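### Sample
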Amino acid sequence: MQQREFYRLNITAFCSLRLRKLGAKQLPFGDEFEVEIQNISGGGLCFLTDRDLPISEVLVWQFQIDIPNHEINVYGQLVWKQAETEEMFLYGVKFLFFKEDEQRNLISKINTLQIRRKQAEKYAAW
């Protein structure tokens, strides 16, 4: 059984996605579209969309994630794709970090979200 490197938080949130790099070529801000996040971790995320996107190591995508009280802007590569239905696709993303503290900041935000969720569940049980 494979052990995950990072805790994965199941969450329903929306995110803007756009292609930013093709190999070494930086692309201008192009078309942006929205996808639905299924879960997120310090190493990547999983999202659902009706777009059939290519899986390629030369493509770098920018993810602008808006979670209550947290805005996350991160880059990543699509590493797997699974057809959920004829019109919907599920994708796995591996984050790419260009600065040392970016991943620590992301993990901190995910941990804060998890703590808030646990607190809300605890108080709801009272």
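The mean pLDDT is 86. This sample (PilZ domain-containing protein) is used throughout the tutorial notebook.
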